[in-house]
Design brief:
By secondary structure, this protein is an alpha/beta fold. It has twelve helices and twelve strands. It has two domains: about 190 residues, Isopropylmalate Dehydrogenase; about 140 residues, Isopropylmalate Dehydrogenase (3-Layer(aba) Sandwich), CATH 3.40.718.10. The protein is globular, with a radius of gyration of 20 Å.
Length: about 325
């Protein structure tokens, strides 16, 4: 199996520590991965944290696969400034972006099986001129899939897809359309069949309002936006149900009736996922020609450099990326 590519993330955050801990957990069993990072900073970080991780610079992904059992292989992406834990530095924004670009290039060329991204600090990148809302949109541009990407959060307990993502609640409601719901569901259904091996995926579509609008008493969007989407999707042969009342669709009994919850806005999707299974939640970008996952958390500047970061979500992201890449390859 081809190695996975793990990006740098913000070097002032916990991404480097997570990569080191992931190698400690996986070097015997795999999946193998190569870090697109600054080998000097990773070696220094391992020493500071007391992590017995030998760091080995490599020149290509094939060399990384051969080296993984004995050392953490690193394709060098030099930093412009020495990172300080918890203090993002605009000078290193170029390296953060270059790490993502190189990972996408390797995946598009088939040199790595998937891309796993460590958390970035969007504000630091914006100050340096980064023109994308986040990883998802940037990777879509790099892979030629602009406008088709959908964010899924997945864990063993729940999968969720927000139709609108990084926007205020007011703006999310204003921008929501039937066409957006239909497009998100079509992309999700395709990905569940192709990458997750679910032959007949069941999609549960959330209402926007309390009690799914209470037949119009608490809002009309269910009738004007959501139900038309459901009708079109059923005409396409996609197994959809809803609109579900958002306050009851995440109980254990309800979750057994669907494979993914399609939610209308960011927090409607992410609050239940993170409440149920924060440690094993994985961000998966659907609709790309490559497999991309990431941990379901941020840079955690408050604990960076302290050695206490939990690598569970990165490990889950690596394991899921390996499984999705293997299924897509087959």
């Amino acid at each position: 199996m081809k190695p996975l590519a793990v990006t740098m993330g913000d070097p002032a955050g916990i991404g480097g520590e997570l990569s080191l801990k992931a190698w400690l957990a996986l070097h015997d069993s795999g999946p193998a991965f190569v870090a697109l990072d600054d080998p000097v900073r990773l070696e220094r970080l391992a020493g500071d944290l007391g992590l017995a991780v030998p760091v080995r610079p490599v020149t290509d992904a094939a060399e990384a696969a051969a080296a993984f059992r004995s050392a953490l292989p690193v394709l060098s992406v030099p930093l412009a400034a020495i990172p300080r834990p918890g203090q993002p530095d605009q000078a290193n924004a170029g390296a953060v972006v270059a790490s993502i670009e190189q990972a996408a290039k390797l995946a598009m060329a088939g040199a790595v099986g998937a891309v796993v991204t460590n958390p970035i600090n969007k504000a630091a990148l914006y100050r340096a001129g980064f023109a994308y809302p986040g990883h998802t949109e940037f990777l879509a541009e790099l892979t030629g899939a602009g406008g088709q990407q959908i964010m899924m959060l997945a864990s063993p307990m729940l999968r969720v897809v927000p139709v609108t993502v990084h926007a205020s609640l007011r703006d999310s409601i204003a921008m929501l359309t039937t066409e957006m719901i239909v497009a998100a569901c079509r992309t999700t259904a395709t990905a569940l069949r192709r990458d997750f091996g679910i032959a007949s995926p069941r999609l549960a579509i959330a209402g926007l309002n309390p009690h799914a609008g209470e037949q119009g008493a608490l809002g009309t969007e269910e009738a004007t936006l959501v139900q038309p989407a459901i009708d079109r999707l059923r005409a396409d042969g996609i197994d959809v149900s809803g609109p579900w009342p958002p306050d009851t669709m995440f109980t254990a009994a309800a979750r057994a009736r669907y494979d993914v919850a399609i939610c209308m806005y960011h927090d409607q999707a992410l609050i239940p996922l993170k409440t149920l299974d924060m440690d094993h939640g994985v961000n998966v970008t659907l609709g790309l020609p490559i497999v991309r996952t990431s941990p379901d958390h941020g840079t955690a500047f408050d604990i960076a450099g302290k050695g206490v970061a939990d690598a569970s979500s990165l490990l889950a992201a690596l394991e899921l990326a390996g499984a999705l890449a293997a299924r897509r390859g087959a």
